[in-house]
Amino acid sequence: MKLRIFSLAALITAIGLATPAKAENLQHTRQLLSTKQCPKCELSGIGLFSADLSGADLSGANLVGANLSRAKLNGANLSGANLSGAILYGAELNGADLRGANLSGTDLRDAYLFNANLIGTNLTVAYLQGTLGIPQYAGNQDNFYNWAVMEARNDNYQGAIDHYNMALRINPTFAPAVLGRGVARYRLGDERGAAQDANIAGELFKSQGQLQGYEFSQKFIKGMQMAREKPQDGGGDFLSTLGGIATLLMQFMF
After folding, report:
1. Which end of the chain is more exposed for a tag (fewer CB within 10 A), N or C?
2. In sequence order, which residues have a C-beta less than 8 Å from that of residue 24 and are 6 or more positions away?
3. Final residue in a domain of this structure, among 104, 119, 139
């Protein structure tokens, strides 16, 4: 199933309507801060900005709407935790156990997920702009492609390339990902890599009967050459070509 893109606000609003948040349990908050052992605790709406909760046991905890921005949760046990609508912007979750956690509307922008266990979680309902360390098993071809396109739209071209590469590990003949990676490489000044990707994408599009993709690949190659040889003459047309490619890439998101 193709990934559907929701705005963070819409997701949180929907969650708020469906799941009334309980009041923070101060006893549980004190228990967490003093012992880091708080399985199945009631911590909805808790505010622990930049808190060091590395290694904490929060398995099965209710963290709906919690503010854990930039918190250190490396190695923490969050298995089965309800993190719907929680803010984990910039949080460190390296090596964390997130098996079966509810991530609906969770803000994981710029978070670190290296070596995190995400088995049984659904990242497609979380907000992932700039998120690092998403393992291959946590998404399919379409997920990584869609995340790549969204990163590119936000001018995070290296992040886009990383996601395109993940999509291509799953399906090496996924032509839109090859072309998208080529555009991202060009934006980062790697014209050689961009040209290589454009040529490969063109051949893949052609072999798969996707003529529009093939035509845009050829326009991209010619545009790069013109921009290099006659930058003032070809700049406007090339920008138009890049805009057309962006529209083309968006068509594969749904």
Report:
1. N
2. 42, 43, 44, 45, 46
3. 139
| pTM score | 0.82
Mean per-residue pLDDT, 87-113? 98
Parent domain of 226: 141-251
Q: Give me the residue label for tokens 């006659």.
A: 230
Q: Which of 74, 91, 173, 178 shows the shortest CA–CA distance to 127?
A: 91
Shared domain check, 225 and 158: yes
Q: Are residues 8 and 34 in the same domain?
A: yes
- Same-domain status, 48 and 151: no
The verdict on 12 and 85 lying in the same domain is: yes
The encoded tokens of residue 237 equal 């047309």
User: What's the pLDDT score for residue 236?
Assistant: 57
List pLDDT tens digits, range 179-208: 999 999 999 999 999 999 999 999 999 999
Q: What are phi and psi of 210, to 5 degrees?
A: -100, 85
Count of structural domains within the chain: 2
Domain boundary among 108, 139, 170: 139
